[in-house]
Amino acid sequence: MRALKASVNFDALDILHREIHLHLDRLHLLAHQIEADGVDTAAQHEAGSIESFFSSHARKHHLEEETRVFPSLLASRNLDLVGTVHRLRQDHGWIEEDWLALAPQLRAMAMGSTWIDLAEFQHNAQVFIALCREHLAIEDTLVYPEAKARQPDARHAG
């Protein structure tokens, strides 16, 4: 097994995955709340909080995975693993594209704008949530365990 060149702080990555799951749950609840009650002050606040999280932390997280976690896995002789990592890299692009459709809607909601097409928002939120959850499941059950095993010192903190 080829080791990662530099130790990766998987504890921090795991914590961020939990935070992403939490924010995906919040987005799901927001979508249902808006469907039932419209965009009230609480929904505005929640939309702003969700948008802020995904526009900052989650984007940086993908960059860290691309530069620190994936490279050694792509050098593996396990073609299934390499294929999975290529798929996850492609997912990062799709997640970004989905986010570029959803983020302006959340920002507009947070600012009290009324131009948002709620059906389109519902669709965008569902697509984003589904892709993120599927992506995280693959990372958590296959890719992270494999990458952790490749750490030079077999520790999870960096």
Describe the structure.
The chain has 158 residues and is an all-alpha fold. It is 80% helix and 0% strand. It contains four helices and no strands. Helix 1 packs antiparallel against helix 4 and helix 3 runs antiparallel to helix 4. It is elongated and about 50 Å long. It starts with 9 loop residues before the first helix and ends in a 9-residue tail after the last helix.
Could you state the order of secondary-structure elements as H and E? Answer: HHHH
Number of domains: 1
Major sheet description: none
What is the CATH architecture annotation? Answer: Up-down Bundle
- Poorly predicted regions are 154-158
- Distance separating the two termini: 19 Å
CATH superfamily: nmb1532 protein domain like
Average pLDDT for all residues:
90
Give the number of DSSP strands: 0
Helix content percent band: over 70%
Structure, briefly:
By secondary structure, the chain is mainly α.
Descriptors for this entry?
mainly alpha, Four Helix Bundle (Hemerythrin (Met), subunit A), 4 helices, 80% helix, disordered C terminus
Topology:
Elements: H1 10-37, H2 41-74, H3 79-110, H4 118-149
Helix pairs in contact: 1-2, 1-4, 2-3, 2-4, 3-4
